[in-house]
Amino acid sequence: MSPSKASKLYILDTNVLLHDPKCLFEFKEQDVAIPMTVLEELDDIKDRKQTVAAEARHAIRVIDSIISSASNPSQITKGVRIVLPGKDRATKLGLLSIFPDHELTARAGFLPDERNKDNRIINCALHLQSTFPHRQIVLVTKDINMRLKALGAGLERVEDYRTDQLVSDIDLLPEGHHHLEKPFWEGVDKVDSFQKEGKTYHKVAHSLLPDTYPNEYIYDDSKDFVARTVSVEGDSITLMDLGYSHMMHQSCWGISPINIQQAFAMQAMLDPEIDLTIFLGSAGSGKTLIALACALEMVIEQGRYNKIIVTRSTPPVAEDIGFLPGTEEEKMTPWMSSINDNLEAMHEQDERPQSSVKYAIEKANIQFKSLNFIRGRSIQNAIVLIDEAQNLTPQQLKTIITRCGKGTKMVCMGNLAQIDSNYLTPLTSGLTYIVERFREFEGSASVHFQGVFRSRLAEFAEENL
């Protein structure tokens, strides 16, 4: 291995490559080493029927594209120059090397590695740290326990992969709505109001709302003023006047908003100008109910879309749904029970609730799809509900959102306090990533729900447990 002594050497764990298959281009002029154990793990994963299999194959292709330029096998061990793909090929980064950690023999300070692949990767980093004492060796992994083990074993630098972390604190994530302490019109000296297509707009000074962004909802305590930022242009911003009373009296499939945040979500769902809506909030805040009620209204009553496609991140045991009997929809039914629960809640006053639920599913053409079968599709004229989106990586959410074809609306729902993934945190979740990435996009709106309306018990548990 003959990289520059001045540069750092990053050892990558498998989960980093799965989280972001293009991560090799993110270390700039620093060198990267991939232990042979990591390649073995990628090989094990690439043929599984799991959502991460595609990420594994992608990572392998990226590694191959870099390594293939090596003139001989020994250069792969020493390091091959990483070159950015496409138009940026002139920009050369650090070196990528494959380290044959299977050749290491056990010695003092090494962790037992007979069957533990994490220990083999840690031992690889420990070996490089002792071999190159003048270089900074950094193990990069998204596994918290692995980071603790590595530090305990004597590794000096261990880091999480945070290149795609766009906010430093989850409290800095935009809520999608801004509450004014005093009535809005009291602070307005000059306004240019106009009508367009039956809607009222107000053009005011940007200084009134210096931090606003497209499709942020603005409201005060007057129970009169509610608006949505339509555009931000230099010294002025344009607001669409929505009206508090009108917002609170919206109704979709018999469901009306309980609080103003639900009203914002309903307005965003119903607006044809918004292609992506993102709902965040605690369990029982009404995310799925509002999304489903609006979807049924737009498909059955308004005929704006042809179908509703529902998908979600499933637990690892369910990523291979083949062990369940029936069609794809029937296999996914156990993981889509939240949709059925909300459909039953909407029709509980009907004379025959089960018949009403069946009618809604058939009439709205509701399809339950596995994430594995979303890849490669181009979804047209549909509403796509992505439930439990907090368990998806940025790369997985990108894969789903890019399936959006003509006339399709995407809805991402999730609770950042209920992440089940082993390697995701609220800061690195794909849901957090898209909220921040789409902040300035005029075709998206995010709403952070407040309050718990499921039951008195659920509300107490959310606040006190």
Account of the 3D structure:
The protein is α/β, with parallel strands linked by helices. 32% of the residues lie in helices and 20% in strands. It contains 16 helices and 18 strands. The strands form three sheets. A six-stranded mixed sheet has the order 3-4-2-1-5-6. It has a six-stranded mixed sheet with strand order 7-10-11-12-9-8, with no helix packed on it. Strands 15-14-16-17-13-18 form a six-stranded parallel sheet. Helix 14 links the parallel strand 16 and strand 17. Helix 8 runs parallel beside helix 9, helix 9 packs across helix 12 and helix 14 packs across helix 15. The longest helix is centred in the N-terminal third of the chain and has 15 residues. The radius of gyration is 26 Å and the shape is globular. The N and C termini lie far apart (52 Å). The mean pLDDT is 86.
Apparent shape = globular
Structural class: alpha/beta
Number of strands: 18
Distance between the termini: 52 Å
Q: What integer is the average pLDDT?
A: 86
Per DSSP, what share of the residues sits in E-state strands of 2 or more residues? Answer: 15-25%
The strand line-up of the biggest sheet is 3-4-2-1-5-6
Helix content: 25-40%
Cα Rg:
26 Å
Largest sheet: 6 strands, mixed
| Number of helices in the DSSP assignment | 16
Unreliable runs: none
What is the secondary structure topology, with strand pairs?
Layout: E1 9-12, H1 14-19, E2 31-35, H2 36-46, H3 53-67, H4 73-78, E3 80-83, E4 92-99, H5 117-131, E5 137-140, H6 144-152, E6 157-159, E7 177-179, E8 192-196, E9 199-205, E10 217-219, E11 226-233, E12 236-241, H7 244-248, H8 260-270, E13 276-280, H9 287-301, E14 307-312, H10 316-319, H11 328-332, H12 337-346, H13 353-363, E15 366-368, E16 382-387, H14 394-401, E17 409-414, H15 430-437, E18 444-448, H16 456-464
Parallel strand pairs: 1-2, 1-5, 2-4, 5-6, 7-10, 13-17, 13-18, 14-15, 14-16, 16-17
Antiparallel strand pairs: 3-4, 8-9, 9-12, 10-11, 11-12
